[in-house]
Please model this.
Amino acid sequence: MPISRRIAAYQAGGSWIRKLFEEGARLANDGSGKPVYDFSIGNPDLEPPPEFKKALRTIVNDDTPGQHKYMANTGFEETRAAVAADLSKDHDLPFTPQNIVMTVGAGGAVNVTLKALIDPGEEVIVNAPYFVEYRFYIENHGATMVVAETKPDFNLDLDDIAAKITDRTRAVIITNPNNPTGVMYPQETLDGLGDLLREKSVGRDRPIFVIDDAPYRKLIYDSPKCTSSFNGYENTLVATSHSKDLGLPGERIGFLAVSPRIDGWERLTGATAFANRTLGFVNAPALMQRVVAQLQSVTIDLDWYRRKRDLLYNELTRMGYEVPFPGGAFYIFPKAPGGDDIAFIEKLKDNRVLVVPGTGFGRSGYFRISYCVTDDKIEGALPLFEAAIKNYS
Amino acid sequence: MPISRRIAAYQAGGSWIRKLFEEGARLANDGSGKPVYDFSIGNPDLEPPPEFKKALRTIVNDDTPGQHKYMANTGFEETRAAVAADLSKDHDLPFTPQNIVMTVGAGGAVNVTLKALIDPGEEVIVNAPYFVEYRFYIENHGATMVVAETKPDFNLDLDDIAAKITDRTRAVIITNPNNPTGVMYPQETLDGLGDLLREKSVGRDRPIFVIDDAPYRKLIYDSPKCTSSFNGYENTLVATSHSKDLGLPGERIGFLAVSPRIDGWERLTGATAFANRTLGFVNAPALMQRVVAQLQSVTIDLDWYRRKRDLLYNELTRMGYEVPFPGGAFYIFPKAPGGDDIAFIEKLKDNRVLVVPGTGFGRSGYFRISYCVTDDKIEGALPLFEAAIKNYS
Model:
């Protein structure tokens, strides 16, 4: 076996999303000609907004030399200024270009943040159900993942977070709005998290940080904007991307925003830029940096998503599913009828409907529907969801 | 201090290239109006070839939907097929798309490779002088960097590599052609390295691998193509990018090629794809993948570089500098007159000429000139190099 034992062990553990992805490919090519209803992956079917194409075409027709060269590891000043202006407006805080590091997606931003913050042996708290990559991201940098549970409505459980904090705790990762639940945390919860971490940081040489992984921050359906982790707690970094809000997941364009309220934020931004370089990212892709600089006030068609969210939430609730209300992102996380999520998703799979069991996110008994698909997929699957709850409850 | 102790220690060590970059910016804005001759950084002044602009414009004017979505973590099949075809021709080996993982530059490819190969506590050998990022890359994955010295002409010293191999050695990183020396290794050396590692791998459960970091593989000035690490040794992975051969360093488009001669290469490619995902890269930027798929047989204007290489090599040699012959890349690595590279580069700096001391690459007594600059910079600096050797020898 040529590979490392560490990776071999990771791969032996398998990934539900990967298994379902392969199952989807197998079903699509099984010769039956029947449709597959694949709700397993967050890869939007929606095209980027027209403003994106316009900006991209303008930029590639500009013959100014030097556009594809290296820039500072933090990214183009012009892009960081546009991001800072948008964040300042959203959070009423004085972001400057020096608070922003452009990154290779939100995944890059989270890794850069962890590298800058963590010394080996420290701990990072995540909140179940959680994005499956966090374990890998945290262990990449020699830290240990510690899991806090959430409340029945999937809001953060501050008491459980408090119980999981040790003298090795370095950061708490939150995802707002959440993957896999679609839940947006209330501002009081984020304020409460700030109070808790402020209190728990007293007497430490370095505070406990919040890392808010927020690629869905602009996909909010019932209020004008997302609640603010920056406003809840001073020691906050937001890792995000334009994968979802501009529909560009393949382009790997994101950023890390370091709160101007962090004591010593300049030093922290410097460390994240250093991590961006030395982890091998070097910088976010140059061309896409120039494109998104023009699109900070643009968001993909929210109605496209809201319509699907409403349809799924209303119909599943009517059928008898218990569904925590999803205020954002493009996920719904219903309770699995019968309580056994693995058995239930296998049953759906028999009917060519692919969803991810909650077990894959560290919370059994639920399943995730990713609804960034065309309407006909949802409409075609609804009778199958209805048959499943009838036959299985 | 908000940052990790590990990063703080790295940053306290400083980087010569960064210091010189900052010095260059300071000199350029010192109000004197005098030119600065900055040979410190490998950021090409040469624009990408015209075929690049043509391909880019064609692609962004294509309205086929789904172009910016996620694809497999290995990259688009079409791009990997184009890369595999070019490599098969170059090395006379049967590369398939399954041997290729598209990456976020060569820096991404090296990190992905190390993550897939290394278990914590293992060792990776580099050859001094070496690219400064290797230490960070190796330590990112919990391994230790071990330095082998090279011969006086900067060819690999196989005896020293042999002496540095322990039962914890997992890989040897080479850079062919080399940064900082510009030296291309003879095929006999690569064959000899293969013989050595084949012999040293006997009785191990996993062989010692060669990781050939080859972003300059197409910048070769005296022969039609670069010597082949793939042909020298079966257990070889090549990490490369189009940063230099197409002039796209800011776009972060590269790839990793896994030799089809590796026993279990399919497993290794799978592990590197997994590492690409879990290190947070996810995939190489989608748009640039589609562009470079069309450009595998295109290279930036080699005459632009060859002319500068010849001018610098001939003139520096005439002045009395000892210069190992640079067959590729865009670096020249002369001996520092007087023997003290730090003192010598300070002297050049007083005359507004910026070069990097060999100490920054783990080999004192030399200095690196990066000649990916316009002719007038080289012509303007030549009298200053001549004055420096006269005054300092």
User: Anything to note?
Assistant: The mean pLDDT of chain A is 96. Residues 5-48+300-392 of chain A form a domain with the Aspartate Aminotransferase, domain 1 fold (CATH 3.90.1150.10). The first strand of chain A starts at residue 37 and ends at 38.
